[in-house]
């Protein structure tokens, strides 16, 4: 090899090395972002839903949900719209829970929290709680439309795209069709 050929090969090698380094940096950046999002999600879940204080607060909320579902009890969540001294404790529990769901929805929309993780873990709870609070949410939004709008938006999004275990994605359905899993495919299509 001549000196000129070595210089040309060196330029090619240097270019390939720069491109490989850039690709590696982008890959590391994407991985780190995803890992940080999952870590933030897990930290929030642990603090809000698993730690004792969070569990106690949610237990109070569930007690109010049962009270609202009891036909013998006149309590409704809509009665908590207006702040009074009589409903202060119950209202604080409900509004705190709605604020948590609003924060979750906002975090998911802005990419701070991992949508898939929350959906796997809290889909049923989130949807059930939204249904219980829906009339209160509607009453609140009549006066202030932007209040709890992210909570409603995430509910609507998850209503369209149910829990991944219950409704497989289109690639899974295509894979089942390709592999001849007709019974699985029919059972999913019947649900809709």
Could you explain the architecture of this structure?
About 75% of the residues lie in helices and about 0% in strands. The protein contains seven helices and no strands. The protein has helices at about 5-50, 50-70, 90-110, 115-145, 150-160, 170-180, 180-190. α1 crosses α2, α3 crosses α4 and α4 (about 115-145) packs across α5. The longest helix is centred in the N-terminal third of the chain and has 48 residues, at about 5-50. It is elongated. The termini are far apart. About 15% of the residues are buried.
Structural class: mainly alpha
Cα-based radius of gyration, to the nearest Å: 25 Å
Q: Please tally the β strands and state the result.
A: 0
Helical proportion, percent range:
over 70%
Please state the overall shape, judged from the principal axes of the Cα atoms.
elongated
Give the rounded overall mean pLDDT. 88
Q: Give the strand content.
A: under 5%
Oligomeric assembly: single chain
Number of helices: 7
Helix and strand pattern: HHHHHHH
C-alpha end-to-end distance:
69 Å
Largest sheet: none
pLDDT < 50 stretches: none
Summarize the structure.
With 192 residues, the protein is mainly alpha-helical.
Question: How do the helices and strands line up, and which of them pair or pack?
Answer:
Layout: H1 3-50, H2 52-69, H3 88-109, H4 115-143, H5 149-160, H6 170-178, H7 182-191
